[in-house]
Amino acid sequence: MEKNRENGENQNTEIPCEGCTHKKKERTPKEQRDLVNRLSRIEGQVRGIKGMVEKEAYCIDILVQVAAVNAALNSFSRVLLSDHIKTCVTQDILDGKEETVDELVETVKKLMK
Fold first, then answer.
1. Which CATH number does the domain housing residue 71 bear?
2. I need a surface site. Which of 54, 62, 68, 92 has the fewest CB within 10 A?
């Protein structure tokens, strides 16, 4: 989303990029807030790790924090995947869009690497 320089309003602009599907998912304000809050906590954890490196913290202490960030990202992914299956995938199957199952399988493969 870019800001209109003349009046400061936000406007949606889609910039084509390779590999993007440009699909959108409408979320309730609570769903969006919960996801953004999780990401903000993760962002804070990553900044904390950066600070530990800058302060020359002990390797093991840093690695423990990295493991915590990985666990938080995995948890975020599980929540997002669960919601995706319950909403997008279910609706697409009901609409006869069976290719969504293939997309889901490929996504799960990537998540399990």
1. 1.20.58.1000
2. 54
